[in-house]
Design goal:
By secondary structure, the protein is an all-alpha fold. It is about 70% helix and about 0% strand.
Length: about 260
């Protein structure tokens, strides 16, 4: 997904969000109409590779790279909306109802999916069923849930003030770490043959473990930042986590987007 990011930025900067939105809608429409999608099967692991790339199979945890672009584009659009609405500091805003329209559309898609799905809908939604199959229901529910969560967090921050919520801000600063190691922890969590109460307890325990990992990593990172920058370990850490990664990202974006010079 990081390799695709410069291309998404290029399209966004030069052509706006419309082609990105149209692309995402087309992907889900094609998937809905033609699933299961064909793929080249003549080599070992082809089911994993093509399931990972565009959701041809459910043999690997979803969403696929191609379908996952939907979440990336949605995040870009929401971030752009927040940036242009900082004086209100909220997502669900009657004075700028674009996000409300998106929330309503995603909620309706989730409800429609509920009426059309044959089987245990809540189990497929809470488990890996819709996610692994790259169902539009998974994305609609995820986007609607993200909008509600972000809006509540923004309103809570506005009411309490940034100083009072500072103790939990480490969760935002360690999101990439949790995305990686938190998913590993979730995959190792046993979910088979659990009662409803046990499933709730396992979910809460896994969430608590993820928060603890994020807090621990944030503390370790802060401690390293305070160390002597000339220590070999500190130099390697800063080179990898900051200089090297930032240089690669800047280079990739630079290859895809060249500033346009406007002659006076």
């Amino acid at each position: 997904m990081l390799l695709i990011a410069p291309l998404l930025l290029y399209v966004r900067i030069n052509h706006g969000f419309a082609p990105l939105v149209a692309f995402c809608i087309a992907i889900h429409a094609i998937h809905f109409m033609f699933y299961p999608l064909p793929y080249y099967e003549n080599f070992p692991g082809s089911n994993i590779l093509f399931g990972f790339l565009y959701g041809a199979t459910t043999d690997i945890a979803g969403p696929s790279v191609l379908h996952g672009i939907t979440f990336v584009v949605t995040g870009m659009w929401l971030g752009n909306f927040i940036k242009g609405n900082m004086e209100r500091y909220r997502l669900l805003d009657l004075q700028r109802p674009q996000v409300i329209y998106l929330f309503i559309a995603c909620s309706l898609l989730t409800i429609v999916g509920w009426t059309q799905f044959e089987g245990d809908y809540l189990h497929a939604l809470a488990g890996m069923g819709f996610r692994n199959s790259n169902s539009y229901i998974y994305f609609a529910f995820g986007i609607a849930g993200a909008i509600i969560t972000i809006d509540l967090c923004m309103r809570l921050t506005e009411r309490l003030g940034s100083e009072r919520i500072k103790p939990i801000l480490f969760l935002g600063g360690t999101s990439l770490f949790i995305f990686c190691f938190g998913n590993i922890l979730i995959y190792f969590t046993r979910t088979e043959d659990l009662s409803q109460g046990q499933a709730v307890a396992a979910t809460l325990a896994t969430a608590a473990a993820n928060v603890l990992m994020a807090w621990s990593y944030n503390k370790i990172r802060a401690r390293i930042e305070q160390m002597d920058p000339n220590l070999p370990f500190v130099r390697r850490y800063k080179f990898i986590s900051k200089g090297y990664a930032d240089a690669i990202a800047a280079r990739m974006v630079g290859l895809m987007y060249k500033p346009q010079v406007v002659m006076a």
